[in-house]
Amino acid sequence: MTTRRTGLALLGAAGLAWTGGGQSASEQGKDVVVFAAASLQNALDEIARQWHRETGKTAVISYAASNTLIKQIEQGAPADIFFSADLDWMDYGQQKDLIKPDTRFNLLENRLVLIAPRDASVRVNVQPGFELTALLKGGPLAMGNVDAVPAGKYGKAALEKLGVWDSVKDKIAQAESVRAALLLVSRGKAALGIVYQTDVAADLRVKIVGMFPENSHPPIIYPIALTKQSTNPDAQAFLNYLRSARRPFERQGFTVPVQGQQS
């Protein structure tokens, strides 16, 4: 079984589970508590269910933007594993002594895409100087928060590199996570959005209308590590299991590079 928590309720839920001293929630309940980037939800849920079938053990997975999750860990929220959508927030966790550096490695890679509602007729050649403002037709561009959410940071970097950021920076609908940005497009609240390639598989009401050149933004790398506070022996076992679980990630569109890379 996989238990999930998402979004704004996460800190409150974690706070209720955390006793504030002595054993963490993961030690008491023996479940492995994973704080994971929102874009990982579909693949990670599948892997956790598979792990439960094979071992009888449970992963409790909380999904949100990477910046939100690591700040909650910093504030004392109990987690055994932090799975980030970019290197910066894992670096932050390491600098703040919130993770175990010797358990850290890069697990996945992703692509950045431009999406539109499924019934849209638009097709975009994402290149330097492309007419993004005209494509929006007066509506907003959905993105994760460009100062904090990894997908938003990658998106802003790409638009700057392509020379179109200044033309759309006042038209951005900034969301708390990449999945929230996806939802804005899915519900018709935004004509276009910037998300990860893997997010599109989670919502049949959107489609990819353009691919961002990989050289237009920093590489999209997902590092993972045990948290400093974790003493749950099952956490290392689940980390190892994730390391070997290629197919569920690949089915969602992630690239799984040669394993064993330290980040």
Largest sheet: 6 strands, mixed
| Main sheet strand line-up | 1-3-2-4-11-5
CATH architecture of the largest domain: 3-Layer(aba) Sandwich
* DSSP, total strands: 11
User: How many domains, in number, for the residues?
Assistant: 2
Helix content: 25-40%
Distance between the termini: 30 Å
> With helices defined by DSSP (H or I, 4 residues minimum), what is the helix count?
11
Shape designation: globular
% residues in beta strands: 15-25%
Structural class: alpha/beta
Structural Rg: 18 Å
The CATH class of the largest domain turns out to be Alpha Beta
Topology record:
Layout: E1 2-6, H1 10-17, H2 25-29, E2 32-37, H3 41-55, E3 59-64, H4 66-74, E4 81-83, H5 87-95, E5 105-109, E6 112-117, H6 132-136, E7 141-144, H7 150-161, H8 165-168, E8 172-175, H9 178-186, E9 192-196, E10 206-211, E11 221-226, H10 233-244, H11 246-251
Parallel strand pairs: 1-3, 2-3, 2-4, 7-8, 7-9
Antiparallel strand pairs: 4-11, 5-11, 6-9, 6-10
Helix pairs in contact: 4-5
